[in-house]
């Protein structure tokens, strides 16, 4: 029989978890509810009141109006896709070299490169901006993606540690069969590394989809505006129309929510692996 003390302890845990869930999900639910209201209802009723009736006018205005919010979604999707593909590809190559290729100064070079994790991203904004200006890439798509395409210290560190955990016997067997480094990477290392690759893909997608500072600095005007900058612009352009701003916030959240629902196991694994490493 369960003791009263254990029951109270379990109940207290559930109360804390419920409160945490409300605090976490509350802003998102409020965003959706506000986006489905008309400006008149939002101005006249409590902010927690349910939409009556549910209206998609704000979403229609965003996607078909002159603000080019639909274009911002496409730019963000293209930017995220390019960065994920190239960053993962170059990170795999670098991590394999650090993990499986013996060359002079390998450990020193790895730790020097890894020191980039100690540098705050904000410190790199001005040097990167000056480089992009010199290359003529300001306010271009390649100016958005180029600084993030060639791997990242975080991804290379995780991949290197994962690659080093793959049994050496498998690599030796491939070498005996005549496989070189490229064949070993493609046929042995990458297929065995699907969990960590899925993890890094999800982390990169979320971080790039939510990227704000660099797109704000490197782009001007609506041509290459990403969804975070477009949402911030709406707050100044439609200062009193919070229903439109909340509809934009909801549209920005939908792809990430769908991604989470589709890859819940990988998301949990990403938290486990990144926390452990």
TrEMBL record:
<keyword id="KW-0812">Transmembrane</keyword>
<dbReference type="Pfam" id="PF00528">
    <property type="entry name" value="BPD_transp_1"/>
</dbReference>
<feature type="transmembrane region" description="Helical">
    <location>
        <begin position="184"/>
        <end position="206"/>
    </location>
</feature>
<dbReference type="InterPro" id="IPR000515">
    <property type="entry name" value="MetI-like"/>
</dbReference>
<keyword id="KW-1133">Transmembrane helix</keyword>
<keyword id="KW-0472">Membrane</keyword>
<feature type="transmembrane region" description="Helical">
    <location>
        <begin position="242"/>
        <end position="263"/>
    </location>
</feature>
<dbReference type="InterPro" id="IPR035906">
    <property type="entry name" value="MetI-like_sf"/>
</dbReference>
<keyword id="KW-1003">Cell membrane</keyword>
<comment type="similarity">
    <text>Belongs to the binding-protein-dependent transport system permease family.</text>
</comment>
<feature type="transmembrane region" description="Helical">
    <location>
        <begin position="141"/>
        <end position="163"/>
    </location>
</feature>
<feature type="transmembrane region" description="Helical">
    <location>
        <begin position="7"/>
        <end position="30"/>
    </location>
</feature>
<protein>
    <submittedName>
        <fullName>Carbohydrate ABC transporter permease</fullName>
    </submittedName>
</protein>
<keyword id="KW-0813">Transport</keyword>
<dbReference type="GO" id="GO:0055085">
    <property type="term" value="P:transmembrane transport"/>
</dbReference>
<feature type="domain" description="ABC transmembrane type-1">
    <location>
        <begin position="73"/>
        <end position="263"/>
    </location>
</feature>
<feature type="transmembrane region" description="Helical">
    <location>
        <begin position="108"/>
        <end position="129"/>
    </location>
</feature>
<dbReference type="GO" id="GO:0005886">
    <property type="term" value="C:plasma membrane"/>
</dbReference>
<feature type="transmembrane region" description="Helical">
    <location>
        <begin position="72"/>
        <end position="96"/>
    </location>
</feature>
